[in-house]
Amino acid sequence: xxxxxxxxxxxxxxxxxxxxxxxxxxxxxxxxxxxxxxxxxxxxxxxxxxxxxxxxxxxxxxxxxxxxxxxxxxxxxxxxxxxxxxxxxxxxxxxxxxxxxxxxxxxxxxxxxxxxxxxxxxxxxxxxxxxxxxxxxxxxxxxxxxxxxxxxxxxxxxxxxxxxxxxxxxxxxxxxxxxxxxxxxxxxxxxxxxxxxxxxxxxxxxxxxxxxxxxxxxxxxxxxxxxxxxxxxxxxxxxxxxxxxxxxxxxxxxxxxxxxxxxxxxxxxxxxxxxxxxxxxxxxxxxxxxxxxxxxxxxxxxxxxxxxxxxxxxxxxxxxxxxxxxxxxxxxxxxxxxxxxxxxxxxxxxxxxxxxxxxxxxxxxxxxxxxxxxxxxxxxxxxxxxxxxxxxxxxxxxxxxxxxxxxxxxxxxxxxxxxx
Length: 420
Ligand SMILES: NC(=O)c1ccc[n+]([C@@H]2O[C@H](COP(=O)([O-])OP(=O)(O)OC[C@H]3O[C@@H](n4cnc5c(N)ncnc54)[C@H](O)[C@@H]3O)[C@@H](O)[C@H]2O)c1
Hints:
- There is one protein chain.
- The chain is of the alpha/beta class.
- It has 2 domains: 4-134, Rossmann fold; 135-340, Dihydrodipicolinate Reductase, domain 2 (2-Layer Sandwich).
- Helices cover 37% and strands 22% of the residues.
- The chain has helices at 13-27, 43-57, 67-73, 87-96, 111-123, 138-148, 183-186, 188-199, 235-238, 315-318, 327-333, 345-364, 374-393, 399-403, 412-418, and strands spanning 4-9, 33-39, 62-64, 77-80, 100-104, 128-131, 155-165, 202-210, 215-217, 244-246, 252-259, 264-273, 278-285, 288-292, 302-305, 397-398.
- The chain has an 8-stranded mixed beta sheet with strand order 15-14-13-7-12-11-8-16. A 6-stranded parallel beta sheet has the order 3-2-1-4-5-6, sandwiched between helices.
- Strand 1 (4-9), helix 1 (13-27) and strand 2 (33-39) form a beta-alpha-beta unit.
- The radius of gyration is 21 Å and the shape is globular.
- Nicotinamide-adenine-dinucleotide is lined by residues 9-15, 39-42, 45, 81-84, 86, 90, 104-105, 133, 172, 186.
- Nicotinamide-adenine-dinucleotide (NAD) is lined by residues 9-15, 39-42, 45, 81-84, 86, 90, 104-105, 133, 172, 186.
């Protein structure tokens, strides 16, 4: 089988993490891609990725700074891991060029940016996949199987709460800027995707939002301390970021969600918490409830059924005899029916990114469709901005209004800055 000629476009933190994911996929026996290009206007970042790719694959991808140069290298597929402001400009162009395109979350910086990508995908023969990783965690697969099997009866309500962060920078300065993908979008799209994956489509959102910490602090500035640094790749950039900077994006949201199937959700995403930090995702149903571990932790699901002891071990699998992970996940995680796993975070991270690449490769080869398509990628962005639009207008908004761009007061200035 011919390998798919691939380039990584955007060679910062996630570009490097995707490289490690690709290497992990190949190590697991799924050698489906030939990484031929590393594209970034910051030459140092592209060179770094190319250097590390050479160590992993034995071949050094060509370093380029833009898509025209990439066309000369000759690619069939691109993996877009740029900062979110460029997702739509890059993805629309790559789809128009007929290159299969996998784009990191958030699919676009606003709903309008997503709709532009959605339209380009509809008009292209090339495949568009959204690299949304959390749902591919084997434990989230098990949670979905348990819900489908009706172990908690009919789902009634969701509690999703995450609180912490204080006034510290989350990974990078841009994650605190409204016009570059504030934290409620950056993290929120993951949760929106997970919640719809587990419970179906959200119909309405009502929220209050806040910007509690207008000055954020970067403990890693100057190379002294360490800050939020998933998979350990961000330190080299964080040392050169300012020690303090102004944040323009809201950092906390308190929301009520309703779902098309009648489920109600209480959602707190507070990235400015100074007290006891916590993370909760619970789903309560007509027979019982499940308490989920945080994404990519490998922790266990706890099932509570009235009158029974809590089930939080391999007995969960007895309740879903037909539950099997897909072939790529099995080869990466070493089992087709997992209820827990235990890897250091960077290893879990790259295994889950490898699953995204596996899904993308299978779709390119005509074996099925991608799991997270342009519709779902757009929905997740619409839910996250639905929370911000509701906070802005003080009223309940529907996700249909969000998708139709008929509610966009909050996003207007961002769209203007993008020229769309
Ligand atoms: N799924 C996850 O768990 C996860 C985690 C982190 C980041 N992300 C996503 O990955 C993307 C990148 O985030 P990051 O943390 O790597 O950011 P980053 O700032 O570390 O890196 C972004 C890179 O994109 C490059 N870039 C900007 N414009 C470009 C263009 N037009 N063409 C090519 N390269 C360009 C920058 O020079 C930089 O090297 C974001 O969309 C982010 O939300 C996802």
